[in-house]
Amino acid sequence: MVKNIYEDQNYPEAVLPSCPIDKKLKGQTAIVTGASSGIGQSIALAMGRAGANVIINYISGDEALKEMVPEIERCGGKAIGFQADVSKEDQVQAIFAKACEEFGTVDILVNNAGLQQDAAFDEMTLAQWQKVIDVNLTGQFLCAREAVREFKKSGVKKEVSCAAGKIICVSSVHEVIPWAGHVNYAASKGGVMLMMKSIAQECAPFRIRINSICPGAIKTPINTEAWSTPEAQKELLKLIPYQRVGETADIARVAVWLASDDSDYINGTSIFVDGGMCLYPGFATGG
Length: 287
Ligand code: BGC
Description:
By secondary structure, the chain is an alpha/beta fold.
């Protein structure tokens, strides 16, 4: 069963209905990469619930699409699954070609696909380094470049948005927090930060907005061992002043807002959604 993202924390239906009445993204098309599980899946569903057509990009796990597609279509958008490796130029171009063929253009890109290949620094292989950089950084570059090409071509379509297009990079708290044992991952996310800001500076005059969301510890398959046992969770909460592990819905809500005109004056910014993980919690009692 695909979970209603708003049910995770028992928000009253009247406040955050599963199909928001105000479909802020109606008539827009969103590509969400790495969307068959975790944060990407939640964002794809939330975009659909806000009225967008969604291209659900995935590399594996296509069984999730059987429930995601009807759920998005129940809310008025259309949804299509598309298998592609974001680190391959021709496959990225194929995602955008499919979106334009089906829906005419693309309005929103969510650069979400990412992975970890952890190792002690002196044991990290070149293959582990390269894989993480290829998917997490080069993948975001390839998708963003294709999106900007399309946004420049289509320009502003006033009936759907006051921007020509919006890009949301799913980064991490580790774009600023160094991470021992995960040097490749932290380097990729640090790269995403300055890539995003440099694209923002260059493309803002074309009414293109690009921002990052920096999740902290969110319950997803990427970090199951950090939260799935009571002992692990106790350790993890030492790093989170707000004292709860994040839900994918926490990220999805921010993604919809960043894709909507409600955030129209926000460009080139990293938004940390981390329960305060970046606040140096170790200093709460020390220093
Ligand atoms: C990582 C998770 C980790 C979190 C906080 C994320 O970017 O993918 O594995 O739990 O950062 O450290």
